[in-house]
Specification:
Layout lengths: L6 E5 L9 H12 L7 E5 L5 H8 L4 E5 L16 H6 L4 E4 L2 H6 L4 H14 L2 E6 L3 H5 L3 H12 L9 E5 L13 H19 L1 H6 L2 E4 L4 H8 L6 E4 L6 H8 L3
Parallel strand pairs: 1-2, 1-8, 2-3, 3-4, 4-5, 5-6, 6-7, 7-8
Helix pairs in contact: 1-2, 1-11, 5-7, 7-8, 10-11
Bound molecules: phosphoenolpyruvate.
Length: 251
């Protein structure tokens, strides 16, 4: 989108131990060695790795982020991690509303909305995920689903500086399947239109809308070249530096 610097973001999901840090080091090196001129870069890692990941990429243009946060700052929530804790560990961003959280943990749009506000309270950028299931696409409900998710998940105080949207068709995540370029274009244009209704034209025009779902080096040029696609959210292919850098090279 004119005037928007792209963002290529990784999501390691429940993968990665200290043995994975050399891949992250290679990603940092790849951005030092020229990719920084083309796109911003972020890798979201498990909370257990965050502080070491932040050290690993320090001095490079690559940022690190969390994959989820609790809506509260602290308290009796055994096993949960707050946005403030992610910030303290070195995160600049946090993913909220990933479909795996929505499915595995029953997160509603209201939960995602609260988590985005928690991210801002802590000074993090929220990457807010939306996307339809296969059944929803097949029944022709995709645009309605996206409207509902944007209306419910994106707080009205979202700006291009504190939020990034990610369109991730659930059926394309980790499956090797991808929507057609025309379907991606339609979904992204629709999301931007819904953002404009909520936030105003000016804010919506500047907001990054990432595409996510089976992005790899071989399809990145086509998917990232679609109108209103301002970067990628990359799962599986973010675990290997060569693949992640190969995707960023689409820019
Ligand atoms: C994701 O987890 O956000 C994702 C898009 O996964 P993958 O790239 O593996 O489909």
């Amino acid at each position: 989108t004119p005037g928007i610097r792209p963002l290529v973001a990784g999501n390691w999901k429940m993968n990665g131990t200290s043995a994975s840090l050399p891949e992250l080091r290679s990603i940092g090196q790849g951005f030092i060695n020229g990719l920084d001129a083309r796109t911003d870069a972020l890798v979201c890692v498990p909370a257990t790795l965050l502080s070491r990941a932040a050290e690993t990429v320090s001095g490079t243009p690559v940022h690190v982020g969390g994959e989820d946060c609790h809506a509260n700052q602290s308290g009796a929530h055994t096993g949960d991690v707050s946005a403030e804790m992610l910030k303290d560990a070195g995160a600049s961003h946090v993913i909220v509303g990933h479909s795996e959280r929505r499915t595995d943990h029953g997160e509603s749009d209201a939960t995602v909305h609260a988590k985005a506000e928690a991210a801002w309270r802590a000074g993090l950028v929220a990457i807010i995920c939306v996307g339809e299931t296969r059944a929803q696409r097949e029944s022709g409900a995709t645009l309605d689903v996206l409207s509902t998710q944007v209306a419910g998940s994106v707080p009205s105080s979202a700006t291009a500086a504190n939020a990034v949207l990610a369109y991730e068709p659930v059926w394309a995540i980790g499956t090797g399947l991808t929507p057609t370029a025309a379907d991606v274009a339609e979904a992204h244009a629709h999301i931007r239109e819904k953002l404009a209704e909520k936030l105003g034209q000016a804010a919506a025009a500047k907001m990054r809308i990432l595409y996510g779902g089976s992005v790899k080096p071989s399809n990145a040029v086509e998917l990232l070249g679609v109108a209103n696609v301002d970067g990628a959210l990359v799962g599986g292919a973010s675990l290997k530096a060569a693949d992640f850098l190969g995707i960023a090279e689409a820019y």
